Amino acid sequence: MFKENSQQFEQSTSPELEKVTSFEELYAFIESQGEIHGTHTTYKSGDLRKIIERVRHGHRPIEWITRNMGIRDTVEKLLVNDRVYLKYTKGSRTGRK
Q1: 26: closest CA among 3, 42, 49, 5?
Q2: 55 exposed, middle or buried (CB, 10 Å; 0-12, 13-18, 19+)?
Q3: pLDDT tens digits along 6-24
Q4: b/e per residue, 4-20, with b = 16+ CB within 10 A?
Q5: Residue ranges per domain, the chain?
Q6: CA 21-72-18 angle, 5° bins
Q7: At 30, is the secondary structure helix, strand, or coil?
Q8: With the C-alpha atoms ordered 78, 83, 87, 91, is the resulting torsion angle positive or negative?
């Protein structure tokens, strides 16, 4: 959430995200938000989903995902057992080929 005058965003995890157990649930949450504000960018739900998919497929590092609302932490939690991610990264820690 945007804090007026401070130009900073809350980094705490949204209570809804703490319950997420799949990428489908994560994408539904992101869609329900419409837009999510990052430090330098406001992400439309579809754009953020594309970024997450690029990370899952090993095309982008996890740092491309905003930390706002706990989204990056949630993605990291989901990637641990994600077959798509593990297939493309072959278990590398960087998320890159």
Answers
A1: 49
A2: buried
A3: 334 445 678 889 899 999 9
A4: eeeeebeeebbebbeeb
A5: 2-89
A6: 40
A7: helix
A8: positive
